[in-house]
Amino acid sequence: MTLRMKTLVSGGHQPVLVEEVLRFLNFPGSRCIVDGTVGSGGHAAALLQATPSSVRLIGLDRDPEALKGAAKRLDPYEGRFSLYQASYKNLEEILNQNPLSTVDGILLDLGLSSMQLEIAERGFSFQKEGPLDMRFDPDSSKTAADLVAKATEKELSDLFWRYGEERHSRRIARAIVQARQLRPITTTRQLAELAQRTLPWQGGRRLHPATRVFQALRIAVNEELSALEHFLGHALDFLSPGGRLCILSYHSLEDRQVKEAFRRWQREGQARILTKKPIQSSESEIRNNPRARSAKLRAAEKLEPPAHGDAILISHRNKYRVPPFGGGQGGVDGERN
Ligand SMILES: C[S@@+](CC[C@H](N)C(=O)[O-])C[C@H]1O[C@@H](n2cnc3c(N)ncnc32)[C@H](O)[C@@H]1O
Question: What average pLDDT does range 25-33 have in this prediction?
Answer without folding.
Answer: 96
